[in-house]
Amino acid sequence: MQVCDVAVIGLGAVGAAALYHLSKCGTSVIGVDRFHPPHTLGSSHGDTRITRLSVGEGEQYLPIVRRSHELWRELERISGESLFEQCGVLVLSSTPHYAPEDAADFTNRTVRLAQTHGIAHEMLDAEQIRQRFAQFATVLDTAVGYFEPSGGYLRPERCIAVQLSLAEQQGASLLKGETVSSVTSDVCGVTVITNRRTIKANKVVISAGMWSRELLAPHFDHLLRVCRQKLFWFQLEKGARFAETSPVFIMRHGRTDDDMSYGFPPLAGEGSVKIATEQYEQESTPEALERTISKDEEREMFETHVNGKLAGVTARVLKSAVCAYTVTPDSNFIIDKHPTLQNILVVSACSGHGFKHSAALGEALAQWSTTGASDLDLSAFSLARFEKESAP
């Protein structure tokens, strides 16, 4: 039996941040993970993750990512590690059918949010995109780009490792390689049972990613889906020309969301660029998730999203990886108290766009666990919205 004020289940992006902030304020805290984070078996790996202020998914995210940017810089000062590369983010539409009034276009949504909230940015036409960023020499004449200098990319494995290390230095207990089998609560607190021990806590934060559904069943069965995602690192051509400071990019090159990809600048010494897409049609489970990318998938990715769209990149894949997004019906977060169990806060699923927000979410969860409220307004992510949708 181990006893603590707060237990955190799942030490990925959000769990690691919560553990760090709880330990920072002197709370007795235990973190549990079935693997040894940072690892490549969940949703928080892949070398780089995008961060930007104008989050096209909705304005409710802006205060969270603003605070996260502050916290990433604070963590860099404390740890001496480089976590946040502010190379800028280019969101562009390069389609024959681009229309400035199209509210569904991701670039347009990004621009309108930036304009509404005063986020510094530049608008670029096709010729300006080509001149400034040589890798986009093939964009169509109808292309339009939004460049946000405050954006860039995070190093997810480093972010998690730094926060877990600092948390441990501040007194947190880390239980790695332990699987939680049940979480129950009563008037005496919350009981967490793993394959090795029992933990008694006053409060529990569950941030278990794609394992949340089985842990939280049956209440979350209809709310969480696991979707397999593919990441590719394509080799650069010899002498490939990229801008001296290349941005992260999000590109739409067709009519549908399937015609979108995102990528990162070449990292020093690697000779490759990471390019990926998102898909939400095919579901899986943690046990059945196919973690190997096939040659057919490599060819399809190159022909659909790279060839003719990004200059200086070959079809050769130097490495690839699979991660899993746990997705809600509206693709927004769930951050709320458990509907039937007291003193348990459920956070996630982050639906594939959570890492950029994780630092501030960890701080908010620590505040909730110690004071019952957080500085951030997280009401947009409550379970009540699903009750309203299902009501007659």
Automatic annotation (TrEMBL):
This protein's record includes keyword Oxidoreductase: yes
Keywords: FAD, Flavoprotein, Oxidoreductase
Entry GO MF terms: flavin adenine dinucleotide binding; sarcosine oxidase activity
Keyword Oxidoreductase set for record: yes
Required cofactor names: FAD
Domain of life: Bacteria
Gene3D superfamilies the UniProt entry points to: D-Amino Acid Oxidase, subunit A, domain 2, FAD/NAD(P)-binding domain
UniProt domain FAD dependent oxidoreductase: residue ranges: 5-368
UniProt-listed NCBIfam families: PRK11259.1
Name of this protein: N-methyltryptophan oxidase
Native species: Pseudomonas graminis
